Backbone:
């Protein structure tokens, strides 16, 4: 160490101590409760204003010829004092209310649906507000963990549901439908042996009833697990579903499906198909629509599904009816979209129709994700 550094060392040490003391004092004041911060700040403003105002007034009167009172000076000083008080109060209150501002920003983020948001501790903290912030952050953390567990459980339940649907569809097709088809053949054979017009008529009615039942079983089997989704892909399956199931129950559906879309992941195709099913079913039950549109387009790295109608609409922000089938359907659609990395929103107004819009990522699902499509094994 040089002689200059040795000489400067003792001189800089008191400055360092003063800086540390000042920093600790500032932190101590910053931890005051909000009520006392505002009280002390306003008290200091009043005291400083009285002292400075009295001193300037006395000095001005002493310096004035004949000790006359100059009202223009008093008015000017009063305006400056009031303006300065307002500015200082604004600055001090903004600093003192920083913890409230953190909670306000958190509330805005939560209102926008960002459950990952947290309230940060501010420099001008308040003991009571800090405890509130810590409690809110803890509740949000537990809510996020609970939501992740619920989503994992939902994916398992959905996968199991699809497996059961596939098994039931296979049983209906391989056993019930085949038995009805055999019964229909046997009825035709018996009809050849009928000896009276009455017997012939009865057997004819029985064959028609059996045919209708067979057709219903086949439609139920396909509705439970559409094999056409595996055979022709999503676009072909949507075309088939609208033409086969919606022709008699909905107004003409205007379809705009991108034929060059290609195959998506099995989970994504199944999610889009099920969401379309639910959206069209909701239109049939609730919308009283005269026009329906269905579109599926690629937008960059996303696939966008839109199902719209011009029906009665509803208020999405209104609290759902307890146990309402409609609210459960909307929840199921959102869950299906989120389970494959997508996002679904419902835009609607009373008397202006409803639009269900869902976006799905094009990249393959991450390794280890739970598959919603049941395997053949």
Residues:
């Amino acid at each position: 160490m040089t002689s200059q550094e040795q000489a400067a060392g003792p001189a800089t040490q008191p400055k360092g101590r003063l800086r540390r003391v000042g920093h600790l004092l500032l932190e101590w004041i910053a931890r005051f409760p909000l009520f006392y911060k505002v009280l002390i700040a306003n008290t200091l403003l009043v005291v400083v204003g009285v002292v400075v105002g009295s001193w300037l007034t006395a000095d001005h009167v002493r310096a004035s010829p004949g000790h006359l009172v100059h009202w223009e000076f008093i008015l000017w000083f009063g305006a400056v004092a009031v303006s300065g008080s307002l500015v200082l109060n604004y600055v001090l209150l903004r600093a003192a209310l920083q913890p409230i501002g953190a909670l306000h920003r958190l509330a805005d983020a939560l209102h926008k649906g960002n459950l990952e948001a947290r309230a940060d501790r501010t420099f001008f903290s308040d003991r009571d507000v800090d405890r509130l912030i810590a409690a809110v952050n803890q509740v949000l953390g537990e809510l996020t963990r609970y939501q992740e567990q619920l989503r994992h459980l939902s994916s398992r339940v959905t996968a199991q549901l699809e497996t059961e649907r596939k098994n039931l569809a296979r049983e209906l097709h391989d056993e019930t439908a085949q038995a009805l088809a055999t019964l229909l053949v046997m009825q035709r054979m018996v009809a050849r042996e009928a000896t009276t017009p009455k017997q012939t008529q009865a057997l004819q009615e029985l064959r028609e009833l059996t045919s209708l039942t067979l057709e219903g079983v086949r439609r139920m089997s396909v509705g439970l697990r559409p094999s056409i989704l595996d055979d022709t892909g999503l676009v072909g399956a949507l075309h088939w579903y609208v033409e086969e199931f919606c022709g008699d129950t909905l107004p003409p559906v205007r379809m705009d499906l991108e034929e060059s879309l290609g195959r998506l992941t099995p989970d994504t195709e199944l999610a889009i198909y099920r969401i379309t099913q639910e959206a069209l079913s909701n239109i049939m039950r609730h919308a009283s629509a005269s026009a329906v549109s269905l579109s599926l387009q690629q937008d960059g790295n996303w696939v966008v599904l839109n199902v719209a109608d011009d029906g009665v609409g509803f208020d999405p922000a209104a609290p759902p009816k307890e146990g309402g089938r409609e609210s459960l359907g909307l929840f199921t659609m959102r869950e299906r979209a989120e389970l494959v990395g997508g996002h679904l929103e419902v835009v609607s107004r009373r008397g202006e129709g409803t639009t269900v819009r869902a976006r799905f990522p094009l990249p393959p699902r991450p390794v280890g994700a739970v598959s919603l499509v049941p395997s053949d094994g």
Notes: Residues 127-192 form the longest helix (66 residues).
